[in-house]
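Human: If only I could read C-alpha coordinates as easily as an amino acid sequence. Underneath my words sits a plain record pairing an amino acid chain with its C-alpha coordinates. Take your time, and here it is.
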Amino acid sequence: MLRMEAKFTIGQVTRHRVYDLRGVVFDVDLSFSEEEGWRAITMDKRLDKEQPFYYLLAECGDSSYIAYVPEQNLVADVSGEPVKHPDIGELFDVDDGGSYHYRGRIFQ
Protein backbone atom coordinates (compact mmCIF):
# COMPACT_ATOMS: atom_id res chain seq x y z
CA MET A 1 0.00 0.00 0.00
CA LEU A 2 1.34 3.41 -0.99
CA ARG A 3 1.63 5.82 1.92
CA MET A 4 1.50 9.52 1.16
CA GLU A 5 1.98 12.51 3.36
CA ALA A 6 0.87 16.04 2.62
CA LYS A 7 3.64 18.61 2.23
CA PHE A 8 1.39 21.53 3.21
CA THR A 9 -0.78 21.86 6.32
CA ILE A 10 -4.20 23.30 7.12
CA GLY A 11 -3.77 27.05 7.58
CA GLN A 12 -0.60 27.28 5.50
CA VAL A 13 -0.42 29.93 2.77
CA THR A 14 0.66 28.59 -0.62
CA ARG A 15 1.03 29.93 -4.12
CA HIS A 16 0.88 28.32 -7.54
CA ARG A 17 4.22 27.61 -9.21
CA VAL A 18 3.15 29.27 -12.47
CA TYR A 19 -0.07 31.25 -12.10
CA ASP A 20 -0.84 34.31 -9.97
CA LEU A 21 -2.87 32.26 -7.49
CA ARG A 22 -2.30 32.06 -3.75
CA GLY A 23 -4.42 30.83 -0.91
CA VAL A 24 -4.82 29.27 2.52
CA VAL A 25 -5.11 25.47 2.73
CA PHE A 26 -8.37 24.41 4.40
CA ASP A 27 -8.57 20.73 3.43
CA VAL A 28 -6.36 18.00 1.95
CA ASP A 29 -7.10 14.89 -0.13
CA LEU A 30 -4.11 12.52 -0.01
CA SER A 31 -4.99 11.54 -3.58
CA PHE A 32 -7.43 12.86 -6.13
CA SER A 33 -10.97 12.10 -4.99
CA GLU A 34 -13.19 13.81 -7.56
CA GLU A 35 -13.06 11.22 -10.34
CA GLU A 36 -15.75 12.87 -12.46
CA GLY A 37 -13.89 16.16 -12.48
CA TRP A 38 -10.48 14.78 -13.45
CA ARG A 39 -10.70 15.77 -17.12
CA ALA A 40 -11.98 19.22 -16.20
CA ILE A 41 -8.95 19.87 -14.00
CA THR A 42 -6.26 19.11 -16.54
CA MET A 43 -5.35 17.75 -19.89
CA ASP A 44 -1.73 17.60 -18.73
CA LYS A 45 -0.59 13.97 -18.88
CA ARG A 46 2.20 14.75 -16.37
CA LEU A 47 -0.30 15.37 -13.59
CA ASP A 48 -0.42 12.41 -11.22
CA LYS A 49 -3.68 11.66 -9.41
CA GLU A 50 -1.72 9.80 -6.72
CA GLN A 51 -0.50 12.90 -4.91
CA PRO A 52 -2.07 15.20 -2.33
CA PHE A 53 -4.62 17.72 -3.63
CA TYR A 54 -5.40 20.83 -1.62
CA TYR A 55 -8.55 22.88 -1.19
CA LEU A 56 -7.58 26.54 -0.92
CA LEU A 57 -9.42 29.72 -0.05
CA ALA A 58 -7.76 31.27 -3.07
CA GLU A 59 -7.23 34.68 -4.58
CA CYS A 60 -6.04 35.68 -8.00
CA GLY A 61 -5.88 39.41 -8.64
CA ASP A 62 -9.21 40.84 -7.47
CA SER A 63 -11.02 37.47 -7.64
CA SER A 64 -11.49 34.99 -4.81
CA TYR A 65 -12.74 31.43 -5.02
CA ILE A 66 -12.16 27.88 -3.77
CA ALA A 67 -9.40 26.10 -5.67
CA TYR A 68 -8.53 22.39 -5.83
CA VAL A 69 -4.82 22.18 -6.64
CA PRO A 70 -2.35 19.28 -6.87
CA GLU A 71 0.69 19.41 -4.61
CA GLN A 72 3.11 19.46 -7.55
CA ASN A 73 1.73 22.86 -8.56
CA LEU A 74 2.14 24.54 -5.16
CA VAL A 75 4.97 26.13 -3.20
CA ALA A 76 4.94 27.75 0.22
CA ASP A 77 4.14 31.46 0.12
CA VAL A 78 6.68 33.29 2.26
CA SER A 79 5.57 36.81 1.38
CA GLY A 80 3.87 37.37 4.73
CA GLU A 81 1.01 39.13 2.91
CA PRO A 82 -2.51 38.27 4.14
CA VAL A 83 -4.85 36.32 1.89
CA LYS A 84 -7.86 38.51 1.11
CA HIS A 85 -10.52 35.84 0.68
CA PRO A 86 -13.93 36.87 2.08
CA ASP A 87 -14.46 33.48 3.78
CA ILE A 88 -11.22 33.44 5.80
CA GLY A 89 -13.15 34.41 8.96
CA GLU A 90 -15.53 31.46 8.52
CA LEU A 91 -12.74 28.89 8.91
CA PHE A 92 -9.77 30.61 10.49
CA ASP A 93 -8.70 32.89 13.29
CA VAL A 94 -5.74 35.05 12.29
CA ASP A 95 -3.23 35.91 14.99
CA ASP A 96 -1.16 39.10 15.28
CA GLY A 97 1.69 37.42 13.38
CA GLY A 98 -0.57 36.68 10.40
CA SER A 99 -0.82 32.91 11.01
CA TYR A 100 -4.09 31.14 10.18
CA HIS A 101 -5.55 28.86 12.87
CA TYR A 102 -8.28 26.49 11.72
CA ARG A 103 -11.53 26.64 13.68
CA GLY A 104 -13.12 23.63 12.02
CA ARG A 105 -16.30 25.37 10.93
CA ILE A 106 -18.05 24.15 7.82
CA PHE A 107 -19.39 26.48 5.15
CA GLN A 108 -23.12 27.10 5.40
